[in-house]
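Researcher: Sequence recovery benchmark, item below. Answer with residues only.
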């Protein structure tokens, strides 16, 4: 779907050793770009940085590192964050430094387009479903507050700034998501357990809904926005805007379990436990803004994405 020649481009991926960032770094390398990854490996893993990328181990809060890398970039994908909601709650001062302040510095100091990883967390408990980009911004905790502050700053940029856009990720899944933390995405946990004959734990009645989007569709959205900002600058329809990155096809956890059950050999055991404190019941996004503005559509269905994850974990 790419229309641009990436070969002369210098691409900075903050958080490029993480789940989404490492997929993105591989893709832009394949497109021929010169890629630099900045990651402090607090949650990322340096072994995920693709060969061929220039890897700088450091934090986005370090002004010298930030300045020197921004000076050498033609486009920045800013994905680095403390993405764990409980970690942000435990240390709001530190998470504010990383998720809000350093992010604002990157957006204001970059002399080039910035594509920022915002989050569906900024919507809080939905008041209407499906959630479109005009839905009220009412985050429930520090993580959502910090993402909302940067998202809002991007939306207030004028034509005199550098080009920037915010992509609000819903529940991203795919190969390479670490299942080992209790805060990992539910699909990586479920697949890990289902393929090792361990029971799944469902918090609540399993009727909560989520809009799961495959990481490869997230990457194509990031690239579509980057190309538009690179080509048109602040005249790009993405500049100063925010977009939902989702499928518009929510599923319940019980439906997810059914798909996994049909895809694995053997029987799947599920245990129901109390609902997780602070959980949102329904999350379902509307992605028509991005679809209408760019030639983008989610391509990988949940069933395809899950069966790919299952076959890969069974190959290991
Ligand atoms: C996502 C983000 C979170 C924050 C939040 C904002 C991830 C991993 N988390 O949380 O960072 O942005 O959205 O709304 O992307 N569950 C089970 N069993 C398990 C694990 C989870 O039943 O073993 C349930 C969990 O209680 C929840 C659902 O699965 O109802 C999805 O959980 P999640 O942690 O994958 O994602 P979510 O949407 O709660």
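Model:
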């Amino acid at each position: 779907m790419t229309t641009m020649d990436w070969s002369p481009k210098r691409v900075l991926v903050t958080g490029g050793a993480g789940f989404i960032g490492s997929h993105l770094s591989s893709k832009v390398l394949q497109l021929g770009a010169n890629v630099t990854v900045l990651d402090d490996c607090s949650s990322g893993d340096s072994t995920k940085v693709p060969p061929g990328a220039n890897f700088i181990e450091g934090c986005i809060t370090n002004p010298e590192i930030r300045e020197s890398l921004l000076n050498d970039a033609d486009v920045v994908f800013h994905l680095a964050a403390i993405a764990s909601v409980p970690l942000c709650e435990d240390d709001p001062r530190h998470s504010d430094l990383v998720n809000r302040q350093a992010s604002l510095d990157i957006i204001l100091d970059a002399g080039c387009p910035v594509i920022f990883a915002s989050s569906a967390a900024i919507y809080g408990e939905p008041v209407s479903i499906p959630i479109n980009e005009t839905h009220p911004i009412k985050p429930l905790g520090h993580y959502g507050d910090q993402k909302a502050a940067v998202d809002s700053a991007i939306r207030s940029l004028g034509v005199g700034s550098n080009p920037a856009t915010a992509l609000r990720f819903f529940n991203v899944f795919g190969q390479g998501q670490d299942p080992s933390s209790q805060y990992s995405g539910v699909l990586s946990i479920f697949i890990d357990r289902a393929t090792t004959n361990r029971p799944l734990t469902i918090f609540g009645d399993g009727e909560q809904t989520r809009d799961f989007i495959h990481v490869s569709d997230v990457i194509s959205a990031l690239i579509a926005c980057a190309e538009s900002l690179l080509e048109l600058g602040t005249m790009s329809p993405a500049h100063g805007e925010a977009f939902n990155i989702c499928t518009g096809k929510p599923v319940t956890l019980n439906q997810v379990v059914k798909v996994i059950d049909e895809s694995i050999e053997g029987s799947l055991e599920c245990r129901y436990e109390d609902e997780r404190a602070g959980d949102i019941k329904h999350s379902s996004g509307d992605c028509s803004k991005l679809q209408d503005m760019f030639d983008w559509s989610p391509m990988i269905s949940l069933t395809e994405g899950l069966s790919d994850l299952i076959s890969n974990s069974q190959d290991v």
